[in-house]
Amino acid sequence: MPINSFENYPMSWKPQKPTDKPLYFALADQLEADIAGGVLLPGTKLPPYRELADYLDVNVSTITRAFKVCKQKGLLSGTIGSGTFVSYDTTPDNCMTRRTDSSFLVEMGPIFPRSNTTEDVICMLKKMIAEPDFGKLLQYGNSEGNAWQKEAAIKLIRKAGYDTTADRLIPATGGQNAIAAILTGLFRTGDRIGTDPLTYPGVKTTAKMLGIELIPIQQENDEISEAGLLHACKNEHIKGLYIMPDYQNPTTHTMSLSGRKMIAKTAKENNLIVIEDGAHSMLNANPLPAVASFAPEHTVYIASLSKTVAPGFRLAYVISPLQYKSLLSDALYNINLSLSPFLTELASRMIASESVDSIIEEHRQLTKNRNRLVNHYLPKHLLIGPDECIFRWLLLPENYTGKEFEKLAQQAGVQVYASERFAVGKAKPPAAVRIVVTAPETMDELRTGLEVLKKLISNK
Amino acid sequence: MPINSFENYPMSWKPQKPTDKPLYFALADQLEADIAGGVLLPGTKLPPYRELADYLDVNVSTITRAFKVCKQKGLLSGTIGSGTFVSYDTTPDNCMTRRTDSSFLVEMGPIFPRSNTTEDVICMLKKMIAEPDFGKLLQYGNSEGNAWQKEAAIKLIRKAGYDTTADRLIPATGGQNAIAAILTGLFRTGDRIGTDPLTYPGVKTTAKMLGIELIPIQQENDEISEAGLLHACKNEHIKGLYIMPDYQNPTTHTMSLSGRKMIAKTAKENNLIVIEDGAHSMLNANPLPAVASFAPEHTVYIASLSKTVAPGFRLAYVISPLQYKSLLSDALYNINLSLSPFLTELASRMIASESVDSIIEEHRQLTKNRNRLVNHYLPKHLLIGPDECIFRWLLLPENYTGKEFEKLAQQAGVQVYASERFAVGKAKPPAAVRIVVTAPETMDELRTGLEVLKKLISNK
DNA sequence: AAATTTGTCTATTTACATTTC
DNA sequence: GGAAATGTAAATAGACAAATT
């Protein structure tokens, strides 16, 4: 029997004690239902384990076990000393690809590059078809890709700030595919990975699916701090760290050289697996060296070739430390079996072609042009991010939350993504939204969208 | 302190008690190392939990926990009453795609279809390139695929024995990709899935990676028996069942109508998720109805379109019960983001084209022709499987194990796959190998391979 | 047929380390 | 700066159920 009566003490959550199901299981279920049902709001502090245990007349460990289930689902986030909180990173609708039913919306939500390579691709295709060996590309391929394809990739990746070798390359069908393979191949349910407090939602959903806990790392000057990282290594036992050093999604922040070196050093000293997502590194004409350059044996680098050069071709490379190569190869094999040799060949030829530099440059120009329009419409002091970045981070006036703004914008016909979509853990996300400047089909559409956003901001 | 001295009792495994690491962890590690190192051979019976606990002077539960880790890795397999055994399903080299360095080998190991559609594809490509909307196929696609593509797929899947609707279809990049998505989306670490005692290795490796335990189901007349399935539901708490009803890999068995109905019925009654792999269903000109036909709300059907019609195009469809649709869509999104719209369009057009029937028929003829040659070389009483199947199951004479035979064949220049590669759990796999008759590039190569196999069989 | 063997599972015990106040 | 609050995790206890003998 409970010793104290808690009827006088306000408890933020009062679960029922079940009779049929296992206790820990039933508690986890109730908690999940109450979070989903809005009974428990993000940021809510839950009662201490011992208090709950006392209230239900069970042992502390039973509470621990119940809460662990929810933590692996990304619903809770706790710290010794301060307590357990409901996470902000609930992701009801996280779809990042274009909705089919929303042609009436100005789309500035999901990240779409806008590069027109149609003519070049057609030209390349015609050449390929005419070659005598074309038929071979329609059979099953080997899983590795061939030598010249890798060399072409290496040449391109060098431009993104990482100089590597062919024996470390493993092809994947796009950056998200690479992330999924890395998380399944190198991590297991219950493992923890550090991230920025706001991070790419594709990592959030995948980690959630696999039961991997994401731990937000404390920042300083908008990037991961040494103290925060060390703290997470020591106290949260993180096994890996996911970062996007160039034009971080969604904050657009580019990590300093010293920050990169610090992460490399810390990774080596604490045997961390750094997952470095180079998704946007190619946008930069003069990128800083990748973290992988400083710690190649502790960094898995993701080079997404589809973004600028060959959109829609679904080709990325994982550049693996030698120690993890076979695990990663196996994981990619388990997920994909093999890539389409035809598509790989086509994408590789595009990458290796003479026009590749001009394609990239053209894309940069287009992005700058669009951003000029964005700068024109939106107030400078609220708009974060350089003109080369294909998305911007828009801070909101007082009394808006990102979520509210997203909804209002949607009602006004413009899709943007609120900061809540990117939030990891219990910390309240800032009032901000991400706007993808290259997503609207035309300049006119972009203008329409910006006008709506401008009006919404001025209203408050 | 241990009460008894076990020095007089032979214990099949005597672990060290560690001092530094956690007990359960260290024990799991030792066990894994000893299995990998050959100290513990497949089939070995380990000491009972209580005996080990007594010997190490720890609690039974500690042993349970240590062994659980290994079970999730597929290394152990235990039953109440009979004890714990080292599994046969160790998979050192399970790569099913063509090796790059083995052009000197006659390849009859991995499953390659051999269908020549080059001319048709070139024709289709030329048409597509000329169309004004071609450029759209090079952008990011929506994740769902469009309506006519789905209709084309449905028409084809109907020929494989399952009549379904477009709202259940989710595209994937090939059958293995579909399996990975189903296992990550609908199952979690620690869940159990029933399989045939010999099953497709792609499921084995993926399950192992995800910590999902595969439970072999007892058979009767070469297919899963009702008693065996019920037993696994009740006692092993399986949450799913993986089956390949047509030309089962590797035994070539095609499941009876009553077997299909039994599985559908049992799945409904026990709320099982049946994963029905239709990989080879299209090989059959008159297939029986799919299990999914009898239990559409409990069966996730995998329709692999790449195998016969569009090899190398990496297109498959997951046909999902409505209750699991969003979980599976999310999982495929997390793994792939989206498919290449270009490749999907190309493959879909091939599937929808008028020549699709003749392509399939041609492939069937080719397979039959090759199998006639196989029948000619190998003894009838050892050779399992119909002439329409692209692989055969070769029983071996006494004193061979599959593994030994595979090795000898390899040394003689022929690659086949031993039964051990397909084995699940502790049961000793039969002495047999799988030979893929469509894998060799030419008829001559096939003949060369068969001559080698024939000689090896006669020698003993 | 009953007793014994054997694995499974939830909940508890206990020690521990960090953060907060 | 020390005590209290708080979460973590390994190991144990004990009830349970199936398979074997």
Task: Describe the model.
Two copies of one chain form a homodimer. The first copy, chain A, has 460 residues and is α/β, with parallel strands linked by helices. The first copy, chain A, has three domains: 3-86, Winged helix-like DNA-binding domain superfamily/Winged helix DNA-binding domain (Arc Repressor Mutant, subunit A, Orthogonal Bundle); 106-113 and 357-459, Alpha-Beta Complex (Aspartate Aminotransferase, domain 1), CATH 3.90.1150; 118-353, Type I PLP-dependent aspartate aminotransferase-like (Major domain) (Aspartate Aminotransferase, domain 2). Helix content of chain A is 40%, strand content 14%. Chain A is built from 15 helices and 18 strands. Chain A has helices at 23-36, 49-56, 60-72, 118-130, 147-159, 175-186, 201-210, 226-235, 257-270, 291-294, 325-336, 341-352, 356-377, 402-411, 443-459; strands at 45-46, 76-79, 83-86, 106-107, 169-172, 192-195, 213-216, 219-220, 223-224, 240-243, 273-277, 299-304, 316-319, 383-384, 391-395, 414-415, 417-418, 432-436. In chain A, the strands form five sheets. Chain A has a seven-stranded mixed beta sheet, with helices on both faces. Chain A has a four-stranded antiparallel beta sheet with strand order 14-15-18-17. A three-stranded antiparallel beta sheet of chain A has the order 1-3-2. The longest helix of chain A is centred in the last third of the chain and has 22 residues, at 356-377. Chain A is globular and about 75 Å long. The model of chain A is unreliable at 1-8 and 93-102 (pLDDT under 50). Chain B binds a DNA duplex (21 and 21 nucleotides) through residues 22-25, 48-50, 58-65, 67-68, 78-84, 234-235.
